[in-house]
Amino acid sequence: MKVFKMLIAVLTLLAVLTGCSFSPFAASGEELYRLPKLPTEYESLEAQLDDLIKDGAEHVSPTSGSNLQSVQMVDLDSDGVEEAVAFLRKNDDEKPMKIYIFRAQEGGYALAYLMEGTSTSIYSISYVDLNGDGIKELLTGLRSSLDVQTLTVFSLAGSEPRTVLTTGYSRYLACDLNGSGAQDLIVIRGDEENVAYADRYAWQDDELILQSSENCAIPVTEVTRLMSGALSGGENAVFLNGEAEEGSITEIFAMQKEKFLRIHTLLAPQSELYPSDINNDGITEVPESVAFPRSDEQGEIFCKTVWHSYDASGKDSVVSCSFYNAADGWSLTLLEYWGDDIGVVRSSASGYNAISFCTLGDGTEDDGTFLTIARFTGNERNYQVMQGDWIPLSQQVDTIYAAKIGGKIDATTLQENFSLITAEWTTGEN
Length: 430
Prior knowledge:
By secondary structure, the protein is mostly beta strands.
């Protein structure tokens, strides 16, 4: 009955929003399940798109980034009214990739702009006001093959779309690096020798001009992520991640005396972690994997993650240290007073996996376990936790996390520093 009442309420609301005269109790079964009629202006847009499809075009969607629909509603000129941006492909044309922009007008939508390209697919699309005039530029990533990506930036400030930049790229992002209020465009590109460069573009004299270019330590084919963040003084910065033979690399770029420079490069053992604001203070911390000392030279190597913040000169400060147990899905912030002479041992038995932390007396000998954290998954998990005098930390549908503690930590502090690892959801990069 509750479900029926909710259905009636939703249908009644739809009827009100679409201007229909509707009585849920007098309607037939067919009318109850009929979709609301589209507003007239959207019927006009749909009809124009249908005509393009009949003429041989097909819808195509961006494959990466946060804007993935084949038709997107975006307020491009900051007037409070959304334009419709449609991506279509007409394979028989010399320029098969087409971007249509329809502007709302009384009673419907009319075609305002058409942009065409020789690529066969669109990789990504972003809408950014680069020069602060209230009109968003279109940052379009086009892909003509698996190895060739082209970034084209269109300005819509005039009566016709204008191309203000075309360049090859691996990654790009827009951010305000110098605090001017205008957005800089940072483009990572490569040359024929696989060397990567970080190019900074800024708006100047009604054009998007290359201001400076910095070489990168990461080969362009090994770039994994580009993101913006904040330094310890609040300045904006760009963080580039990638892989090399020696391990994982993080490069930090920022403005220094009005110049775009690489202020730091961090090389560490390979890690699945990326720069992040781990303590919600508005500052971006950079992870570094550091191996724990081993009591058994033949034993498994474990690493802790040291999180660094950086100032505008590239000087670092250690913010915190963590242990990430990706296999069992939990992490622990390591307490500073534990020191560096900490060993880690993995163990397992029927129904559970455990990680134990122990102090090392002279750096080589196990001097006593002070904390064990276990993940119980078997059918007897509740019984095992109760009978073993484990302290519960978290209970999921089919998993219990629990601990045994010694003298270096109490239950409250452990609970405050223990957390489950949640998967990061991402739609990909531009």
